[in-house]
Amino acid sequence: MAVKSQEERSIANEDDILDVRNSVKRVTALLNFSLVNQTKIISAASELARNTLEHGKGGKSIIQLVTEPERIGIRLIFEDTGPGIPDLARALEDGYSTGRGMGLGLGGAKRLMDDFDIESKENEGTRVTVTKWTEKN
Amino acid sequence: MTRETAVPLHEMISGAKEEILTEWIKNQLSDKSRSKGVPEASLRNSSSEFIRLFEEAITKGNVDDIEKPEWEEMRHMLAELSATRASQGSTPSDTAKFIFSLKEPLFARLTPEKGQGNTEASAAVWQLSLLLDKLGLYTAETFQRTREAIIRRQQKEMLEMSTPVIKVWDGVVAVPLIGTLDSARTQIVMETLLQKIVDTGSRIAILDITGVPTVDTQTAQHLMKTVSATRLMGAECIISGIRPQIAQTIVHLGIDINDIVTKATMADAIKEALARGGWSFERHLESV
Ligand SMILES: Nc1ncnc2c1ncn2[C@@H]1O[C@H](COP(=O)(O)OP(=O)(O)O)[C@@H](O)[C@H]1O
Ligand SMILES: [Mg+2]
């Protein structure tokens, strides 16, 4: 997989989440994702960006345009140096929230995207990487 | 990257300044893809201002780091240029091109014939090229930020506009939600809606989300909160304007909205509300 271009943004407040959403929207439109998939990707980005802000105490997002021989995609990385997630399996369960959320963000993002990867270490931080692919045209 | 050139860069440029400027402006004006929103006079102005500040900054010897104080005036000028161009409707690449297009006329003056040794000239070209790249990138980034600030301001203005709660029929009120449904906005919507329900004695409230761009779990939570509050007032909520792509996303997120009445369009919601209120309609074609 090759990274064609990337854009980095800090996530420090609510406005930054809007900016991330707008950037993601721009890239998904550029890649000609269907309206349904654009909407899914933007919602996933919104969930993960909010987790970075609320649970991770702020961090950054990296929006990448990635290619493989047969397909092209958008990859989103959300990183923070926050408290980390002690029990990943639990965090991924639908309905589990340590805050006042619905507890559907992580599981939802996983279902909305094609690839989902999460790394987390207690007291060090969390990195979530998600990708959605589309065929080259 | 502090490769020394025997003749300082600024001296290589200052002699040919006018020539470079003239050619640069000529090139910019003849570029067919040039954005028509930028008037010629302001293009001429920015170009000569750029050259002036450029010469000034490199005369001070720093050709690497544009974050340093020597470049402050230049950064300031570029920030303003970006802001102006963003509001004139230029594209980011257009704005970056302003700077990149200086390379050609500038480098033409640094060829060995001008009394420079071959290596000296190419070292100078290399250094200047990196420098202009940095300035171009800076301009594009500032441009992007300015545009985001504009978008944000507009979004904010939209959110701050009062939320219209419309009485559509006896006992039926409707709110067309437009924009991002954050906590502050939800609060305003809820207060206005509940007040209107009381004032009109309505039994049904329609929340139309056609104008809500993204629905995520937070938005859903806010909607549900509004629905519960409405129920507590003794009224029932109908959510309309759930576009198919939003419906699918809601399902994938795992949000359960089964106990909320939803309709595809506001018209459907109004029809439902009227039926619940015992209204029925007949169309008399002879009177059309
Ligand atoms: N970036 C993060 N840093 C620390 N904890 C996180 C992070 N992202 C998610 N979590 C943990 O995982 C839980 C589940 O996340 P999520 O499914 O998005 O639900 P919610 O955000 O509604 O709580 C969170 O409540 C939180 O405890
Ligand atoms: Mg969440």
List the helices and strands and how they pair.
The complex is a heterodimer of chains A (137) and B (288).
Chain A: E1 2-11, H1 14-30, H2 35-54, E2 59-67, E3 71-80, H3 88-92, H4 105-112, E4 115-121, E5 125-135
Antiparallel strand pairs in A: 1-2, 2-3, 3-5, 4-5
Helix pairs in contact in A: 1-2, 2-4
Chain B: H1 9-14, H2 17-30, H3 40-59, H4 72-88, H5 92-100, H6 103-108, H7 118-160, E1 166-169, E2 172-178, H8 183-200, E3 204-211, H9 217-232, E4 236-240, H10 244-253, E5 261-263, H11 266-276
Parallel strand pairs in B: 2-3, 3-4, 4-5
Antiparallel strand pairs in B: 1-2
Helix pairs in contact in B: 2-3, 3-4, 4-7, 5-7, 8-9
Bound molecules: adenosine-5'-diphosphate (ADP) and magnesium ion (MG).
Q: How would you sum up this structure, described in words?
A:
- The complex is a heterodimer of chains A (137) and B (288).
- In chain A, helix 1 (14-30) packs antiparallel against helix 2 and helix 2 packs antiparallel against helix 4.
- A 5-stranded antiparallel beta sheet of chain A has the order 1-2-3-5-4, covered by helices on one side.
- Chain A has 137 residues and is of the alpha+beta class.
- The model of chain A has no long low-confidence stretch (mean pLDDT 96).
- Chain A has 4 helices and 5 strands.
- Helix content of chain A is 36%, strand content 34%.
- Chain A has a single domain, classed as Heat Shock Protein 90.
- Chain B is of the alpha/beta class.
- Chain B folds into 2 domains: 9-155, Globin-like (Orthogonal Bundle); 166-276, Transcription Regulator spoIIAA (2-Layer Sandwich).
- In chain B, 59% of the residues lie in helices and 9% in strands.
- Chain B has a 5-stranded mixed beta sheet, sandwiched between helices.
- In chain B, helix 2 (17-30) runs antiparallel to helix 3 and helix 4 (72-88) packs across helix 7.
- Chain A binds chain B through residues 14-15, 18-19, 21-22, 35-36, 38-40, 42-43, 46-47, 50, 94, 101-102, 104-105, 107-108, 111-112, and chain B through 148, 151-152, 155, 180, 182, 214-218, 220-221, 244-246, 248-249, 252-255.
- Residues 47, 51-52, 55-56, 80, 82-85, 91, 96-99, 101-107, 126 of chain A line the site of adenosine-5'-diphosphate (ADP).
